[in-house]
Amino acid sequence: MNHPSSASTEPVRHLDEWEELLIDAEVDDQPDQPTPPVLVRPWLLLLGLVLVALNLRPALSSVAPLLGVVSDSLGLSAAQAGLLTTLPVLCLGLFAPLAPILARRFGTERVVLGILLTLGVGIVVRSCFGEVGLFAGSILAGASIGVIGVLLPGIIKRDFAGHAGTMTGVYTMALCLGAALAAGATVPLSHYLGDSWAMGLGFWALPALLAAIFWLPQAGKRQGAHNVAYRVQGLLRDRLAWQVTLYMGLQSSLSYIVFGWLPSILIGRGLTPTQAGLVMSGSVIVQLATALTAPWLATRGKDQRLAIVLVMGMTLAGLFGCLYAPMEQLWIWAIVLGLGQGGAFSLALTLIVLRSRDAHVAANLSGMAQGVGYTLASLGPLAVGVVHEMTGGWDALGWIFAVIGLCAIVAGLGAGRALYVNVQSEKIQSP
Description:
By secondary structure, this protein is mainly alpha-helical. It has one domain (2-429): Growth Hormone, Chain: A (Up-down Bundle). The chain has 19 helices and 3 strands. The radius of gyration is 21 Å and the shape is globular. The two termini are 18 Å apart. Pfam families: MFS_1 (PF07690). One of its GO terms (molecular function) is transmembrane transporter activity. InterPro entries: CynX-like, MFS, MFS_Cyanate_Porter, MFS_trans_sf.
């Protein structure tokens, strides 16, 4: 049975209007699919989601404040350090397509539980087995985050359909909070735990274990609902889908440059590792404000193009300020950077929802945007490492920021239009 999801020029004015459309489409087009059961303890699921989301960035942002120490300890070159910051982001993209396959086979909740445990294992391996463990653990951690990151938005859409916008904001805020905590606390933790960078990085396996414990009650739910799946065709031929994907990847590239290199840039400008980590943590923590408000404000108008230009403009201004402005102005530009990046990322997630007619298309567009997008995003941190090694300094990075940022704005102007991706959905039976 086919379920067409044709392109439309119908404007998407409000997120709640889209949610009503989604619910109507599910009822009209899928009468034979059972309605998901009402959540008995939604607070327990919400707590579990927040704790899981908190663990999707510490493995990435905890390395940057200690990158110089780790490089000196293991004798890494600038190019190897760049590879270390690139590998986890590359794995986010490469392993994202694995998420729906695992979810159909084992159930979404069980997969999240199992991958949380592999995330903890990856963090431990990264901390305990020298240079080989550092890279192998980074790959395992990045792959784990890539799988979970694709699955959680689908859980939000399914179980909090009436509050999808708010819950997307809460999810994004939890991501930002986890990144900020790891960026600010890793260096002090390493000092407290015997001046050991390995202990400082390894500490972040504990929150992953805690999240797995709180997620355990969800792991036995709704397994039967995964017997029916939908194949969505046409995304790779759709121009709008590629614009959403490129915007996701390009704005993410700037985010992972910040996660991977901002402390090193600031140390090069004269800050201590602790000070640099605190500046990065402060920049990430202010993302909480725009992570929640930017999607809501962007859905008040006829489309999201103006909002995208504003948040990307703030992101570029903050990056150039951190790179070139006088040091006494550093905190101002770090805050501007955080406000811009918080809005840019939350808008990227919101576009996936707004550009899709139904949940099946949104799930597949999410997989494409994160799979291809994060693979593209990994080139940013790598380019920073290569340019830094070639030039021996940081001044040339402004060209990288400008090219990525301007390309993100161009892609965002296309993705922000009030259209739907043009695809076909076909019901299939999963094995």
